[in-house]
């Protein structure tokens, strides 16, 4: 309101000054017209009016004048000059001089009307501006209060939201900017609630998975202490080592997924021959002693730009998953088509039901036939595959295999 008041004050002052300037210009024009009329007529026929006129010779003597300035000294002005004079008692005159042959005609008009008009406008502005400012202040306060009421409601609701109450939402009635802001905040709260839910599930599942190997190590250690004759140091060490490796793998998987959640996966960017990596994985599966037939007849040359270590881990997880469920055959294939490199891993096992094909890519998801932790792992393998493939700009799709089991198709942008 201070700025508005200052603006109104400056506007009022400017109005008075401009009006006074315009009125004085009109008075000057009238005096100049009067002088020109007198200069064109007989100087001895000067009529009396609300102004004055003098005809002055070259010697500076008044040779003719209106009755209201009869006997007054000549106004000392050169032709073309303009000045305020007090030749008429009690009145301020604006005088203009024009040439009339060898004489000078000086005519003047009273500026009293200008002063009166300026005084009236000044008084009106002195009364009207404070009233106008008060009306503007009240209107602004009322309008701002109504406009900011939704903001206050949003502020109160946001202030009441805590980590334990992320289900709450701010009111978003209307279609103005504040309502759009409220809807944006609600979408942010949706994301925070979803992230918190995922984090809680992640911590809960991780704790559950870590509890099993820790409990196993403790159980074997307690048995060894209570009954030293029932176990040997090599047997105890083998058990502890196996459980420790299991914990290590789980922790590494959890760290990778945590970095993926924080968008901190640091992947190299270099040309990678995907067919070579698939052949390495096939050799690893054959040397595992599982007795499975590893079919590599569908492998063709293909190259992508990415991280060889991360892609090797993708293939290892897919290979282990297929070998775990296969009855006798695991198929590996690589093809380049439509600007993408397609890697397919399939088995002849029981397959994955349609309703579970999206769910198996989530974390800590094990289907009924994989409930055994020793056989089914922690349920992170395919989740890690999905994160690493998406980090490379690719996609993962789970479907049915032509040989009877599950098929996982990975599509990567061709390098």
Automatic annotation (TrEMBL):
Task: Kindly state which keywords UniProt assigns to this record, in alphabetical order.
Answer: Kinase, Membrane, Phosphoprotein, Transferase, Transmembrane, Transmembrane helix, Two-component regulatory system
Catalysed reaction(s)? ATP + protein L-histidine = ADP + protein N-phospho-L-histidine
> One Pfam family name from the record?
HisKA
Where does this polypeptide localize?
Cell membrane
Q: Which InterPro entries match?
A: HAMP_dom (IPR003660), HATPase_C_sf (IPR036890), HATPase_dom (IPR003594), His_kinase_dom (IPR005467), HisK_dim/P_dom (IPR003661), HisK_dim/P_sf (IPR036097), Sig_transdc_His_kin-like_C (IPR004358), TCS_sensor_his_kinase (IPR050428)
Enzyme Commission number(s) from the entry? 2.7.13.3
Q: Which SUPFAM superfamilies match?
A: ATPase domain of HSP90 chaperone/DNA topoisomerase II/histidine kinase (SSF55874), HAMP domain-like (SSF158472), Homodimeric domain of signal transducing histidine kinase (SSF47384)
Which GO MF term does the entry hold, naming one? phosphorelay sensor kinase activity
Could you name the domain of life of the organism this protein comes from? Bacteria
Task: Report TM segments.
Answer: none
Show the SMART domains listed in the entry: HAMP, HATPase_c, HisKA
Top EC class for this record: transferase
Report what the protein is called. Answer: histidine kinase
Q: Could you tell me which species this protein originates from?
A: Jiangella mangrovi
